[in-house]
Amino acid sequence: MANNRPGRGLKFCPETNDLLYPRENKELRKLEYYCKNCDYVEDSDRREWCVYISETTFSSKDKTIIVHDVIADPTLPRTKDVNCPNCHHNEAVFISESTEKGMTLYFNCVACRYRWKDYI
Ligand SMILES: [Zn+2]
Ligand SMILES: [Zn+2]
User: Fold this and answer.
1) Least confident of 14-18, 81-85, 87-91, 93-97
2) Total of domains in the chain
3) Cα of 29 to ligand 2 centre, how many Å?
4) pLDDT at 1
5) Domain range holding 70?
6) What integer is the mean pLDDT of 50-67?
7) From ligand 2's centre to the CA of 85, what distance in Å?
8) Within a domain: residue 13?
9) Is residue 5 included in any domain, yes or no?
10) What spacing in Å lies between the alpha carbon of 103 and ligand 2's midpoint?
């Protein structure tokens, strides 16, 4: 069975073989993947990222985010580098969409489900 094949968009640490998590690097204005169990960090390929997001999160017709699925979906990227404006929880599900001006990040707080946007 090919059950252990990573899904599209998932990356694994070459050092410890753990799933890499995306986070935003505000200083460099880009996305990167980091390992929770070692110091490994990898640049995110912006194009690949966008394909992944557009296929899994947005329907072609309607570009609104499906909130309940987003939070429940374990395959979606999460970040623990945020501060929810509503409840100050530090973990949120993390979605990005590229626009003409750059990238828009949509956060969904996993604690209170508050949604907010950021730009990189
Ligand atoms: Zn690692
Ligand atoms: Zn919150």
Assistant:
1) 93-97
2) 1
3) 24
4) 44
5) 20-119
6) 48
7) 7
8) no
9) no
10) 22
Q: How far is the CA of 14 from the centre of ligand 1 (A)?
A: 7
In this prediction, residue 66 has a pLDDT band, given cuts at 50, 70 and 90, of low
Q: How confident is the model at residue 5, as a pLDDT?
A: 47
Q: Relative to the alpha carbon of 20, which ligand is closest?
A: 1
Centre of ligand 1 to C-alpha 19, Å, is 8
Interval between CA 40 and ligand 1 midpoint (Å): 6
Beta-carbon neighbours within 5 Å of ion ligand 1: 13, 15-16, 18, 35, 37-38, 40
CATH number at residue 56: 2.20.25.10
Residues linked to residue 107 through DSSP beta bridges, in sequence order: 94, 116
- The answer, yes or no, to whether residue 54 has pLDDT greater than 60, is no
